[in-house]
Amino acid sequence: MMSTPITTGQGWLHRQRAGTKLAALAILGVILFLVHSLDVLVAALVIAAAILAHVSGGLTPALRLARPALISVLLFFAINLLVLPVPEAVAVFLRVTVLVLAAAIVTATTQLAEIVAVIDRLARPFERMGLMQRGDAGLAVGLCLRLIPDIRAQYSELVDAHRARGLKVRPWTIMAPLAIRVLMRADAIADAIDARGLRP
């Protein structure tokens, strides 16, 4: 999960087309899962973190941007340690973390409307085959990206509520109420979409 995109810069990455950046992200994902050297994966992680810090305006904003997703990656890593050999679990962790940082770079340098437009163009063949309704793919991606900062805000509220009551913050005491809040928010958004006639 990543926070609100930062798209006000004028750097080289900001000027690239959304389709180009999304294609590069997809290619990077394929390459990463073909690489097994931990040294190469660590180098990729350092490079991705440096680029994200640059486009975000510093290390602190970069961590704020990617922190929610990185928490999920750490939980995923902990589970992998139970079922995979340690070197393999570390390699998977590094791959996924690099991808998360790369995705944060894309969202930080690309307008949401541009991403949605690219997704809609990619989905046209499926729409022609009747596998989905027009605009659904772009709408789904747009809502996911828009809900990310919402989820982060809900998480922060729950943490603050725990601390205000003198309770120790534990993942298992946060996840259930967070899931309920997110589902309620999703229902509210679905009702708003229906009320506005954005899709049949």
Automatic annotation (TrEMBL):
Keywords: Membrane, Transmembrane, Transmembrane helix. The keyword Nucleotidyltransferase does not apply. It comes from Mesorhizobium denitrificans. The chain crosses the membrane at residues 22-53, 65-86, 92-119. The keyword Transmembrane applies. It is found in: Membrane. InterPro entries: ABC/ECF_trnsptr_transmembrane (IPR003339). Belongs to the CbiQ family. This is Energy-coupling factor transporter transmembrane protein EcfT. It comes from the Bacteria. It is a multi-pass membrane protein. The lineage of its organism: Bacteria, Pseudomonadati, Pseudomonadota, Alphaproteobacteria, Hyphomicrobiales. It holds the Pfam family CbiQ. GO terms for cellular component: plasma membrane.
